[in-house]
Amino acid sequence: MPILYDKEHKLFHLQAADTSYIIQIFETGHLAHLYWGKRINKLSFNNFPITAVTNFKSTDPILPIDVVPQEFPSFGAGDFRTPAYQVQLENGSTVTDLLYVSHKIYKGKPSLDNLPSTYVENDDEADTLEITLEDKLTGLNVILLYTAYRELNVITRAAKLINLGKEKLKLLSALSMSVDFNDYNYDLLQLSGCWCRERHIFKRALVPGVQSIESKRGMSSHTQNPFIALLDKDVTETHGTVYGFNLIYSGNFLAQVEVDPNYLTRILMGINPFDFSWLLDVNESFQTPEVVMVYSDCGLGNMSRTYHNLYRKRLCRGNYRDKLRPILVNNWEATYFNFNADKIKSIANTAKELGIELFVLDDGWFGKRNSDNCSLGDWIVDKNKLPDGLESLVKSINDNGTKFGLWFEPEMVSPDSDLYRAHPDWCIHVPNRKPAQGKFQRNQLVLDLTREEVCNYIIDAVSNILKSAPISYVKWDMNRAISDVGSESLPAERQRETSHRYVLGLYKVMDKITSAFPNVLFESCASGGGRFDGGILYYMPQTWTSDDTDAVERLKIQYGTSIVYPAITMGAHVSASPNHQLGRETKLSTRADAAMAGNFGYELDLTKFTDEEKSIVKQQVEKYKEIRHITQFGDFYRLRNPFESNEAAWIFVSKDKKEAFASYFKVLAKPFTLPSRLVLEGLNPDYTYEVIGSDMTFGGDELMYIGLDTTELKGDFTSITWRLKAI
Ligand code: DGJ
């Protein structure tokens, strides 16, 4: 049984594949964290390294709690580090102390109340431990939920706080997990950026004190992804110990590392306590989101592949989870708001000619939407642009053999819209205060998804359109962060619940719509990658990675995103040159090679291609059709880091190692370079591989130890790819 309970030592030993995670109940009833790392098969209890600081034993009746590594620490009873939760009693005090009450161990993995989470399809895939803790004085109970996956180095955690006392409790913070390490000799890795520069990799050494990343934007955000990792000092892609933490949540979050005066390191992750509180009536409970914790003892690459395997199969859901994703063309950068039915049909017809499978009509098809200053919320087809309506347009595109997809931004309302005029109170706002408006708010307000009638309006409006025509794909956009947070439907003492209630409302809406239309492929978007997180991926299995479609910028954005999220979740399109965001000129081949590392598509006016370009695009489309089963379902190895060099490279390898697709990019040309070889990974050293399209063959060992020559690649922004097949 991969979760063991040793009664004598009051010790829980969770085993996930090659990982052990050990917790002990101390004599005092506190829950201490003893170990997380490489799997231990023979556990003796002699000399267990509890803490470097004080030589106390778990059986000591008095505990120096401030120096004990813990599992879900409280505040106010002697531990001065940041706690995992804090509650305020009716008398105003905030001191609580959680002690062990009981536990349960069972096969499988439960789902979380109204929140997305990783799952199992068969109870033999994972084991779950529930530990109940209690603060005797208040009756606050906390159930800590741990699931260990049997085949992956993954442990998931979440907590449920229940008020079993006699008075109301106010949660001031309710994080999902806490884990304490016995030293601080780590680097902290984070994925940070902004609009058009999402998920760049940053690394810093831990120092005493608090270091954290967070979102206060009502969305997981472009600024910080809800992910951190602790890395041993010598970590590379292939070597060293890594601990990854990813929150399955789409709203305000906090990921904090605190190095205390004794050099113990505490990791906390969960809903951001900033501007948050939650009133817990008697017998009510509060479920925190899940944190997916991955351990790797062989580098970052292995950690990423663990996340990729888990998310592809046990986070993403629906009919498209295991299906090859279609090649699409989106008209946004081709036309912006300026299109009519003929233009759309001509792009779609050209798409068909080039082998592209899906046409996506982006923003501008509804209300009077000729710019971004009106009509959001009025989901009625604009007959000026599409006089014969949507059904006729979709039918004509379908009849020509291309599928049809449609853009929505369901969470928003324009002040200039019939919806806003009818329901001015339906947006997130603070009464009598003029909401922030400007470039970053894009002339729009956010609908108040804490309200049931608003959620129902969105569900009906989107469903009606989806029922009105054979639509195969939806792009679900969200183009502003949430400011002026307040809801008219909540009482004063619950106003700080608005942000989390918004996320719960969003999940409910997404759940209803995606389950009602199981054959529609949903791709999320938030001004590009502003909500690229596990919470949204649970409902929509792919995300538009960034509004920056420049191939060179995409090298970093996609490389950074791949730290956690698999390529099958990343939308990546070939756009026009010069690029609309940067003005940079790149070759069509480089743009396609970069986009083939994600869900491939085009985002430009196909009708403007010359015949020569069309024939190149046709070949690109054919090539992607031949490799997409490898890139979408194979293993991903990062080979050259664009953040550390003038190059980027990676390889996708099929699960049976018989096929692979490798890509190498040179950003700027340099004179007098030494011969350069790209050493591959993930292949079978005993196989012989042919390079498709050439007469060359190589041994797998040769490719992984000697590598492929890239010296001849000349010019700026150039790339080369190899398709390998075992013979
Ligand atoms: C932001 C998205 O990221 C773009 O791709 C496009 O859909 C626009 N919104 C449309 O307003």
Strand content: 25-35%
Write out the CATH superfamily name of the largest domain. Answer: alpha-galactosidase from lactobacil brevis
Most strands sheet: 10 strands, antiparallel
**CATH class descriptor of the largest domain:** Mainly Beta
Class per helix and strand makeup = alpha+beta
Mind telling me the C-alpha Rg?
26 Å
Instruction: Give the count of structural domains.
Output: 3
Give a description of the structure.
Helix 6 (452-468) packs parallel to helix 7 and helix 9 packs parallel to helix 10. The mean pLDDT is 96. The strands form seven sheets. Strands 6, 7, 8, 9, 11, 12, 14, 15, 19 and 20 form a ten-stranded antiparallel β-sheet that branches. The chain has an eight-stranded parallel barrel with strand order 21-22-23-26-27-28-29-30, surrounded by five helices. Helices cover 19% and strands 31% of the residues. By secondary structure, it is α+β, with helices and mostly antiparallel strands. It has three domains: 71-314, alpha-galactosidase from lactobacil brevis (Beta-galactosidase, Chain A, domain 5); 328-544, Aldolase class I (TIM Barrel, Alpha-Beta Barrel), CATH 3.20.20; 647-726, Golgi alpha-mannosidase II (Immunoglobulin-like). It is built from twelve helices and 38 strands. Bound molecules: (2R,3S,4R,5S)-2-(hydroxymethyl)piperidine-3,4,5-triol. Residues 332, 362-363, 407, 477, 479, 525, 527-528, 544, 547 line the site of (2R,3S,4R,5S)-2-(hydroxymethyl)piperidine-3,4,5-triol.
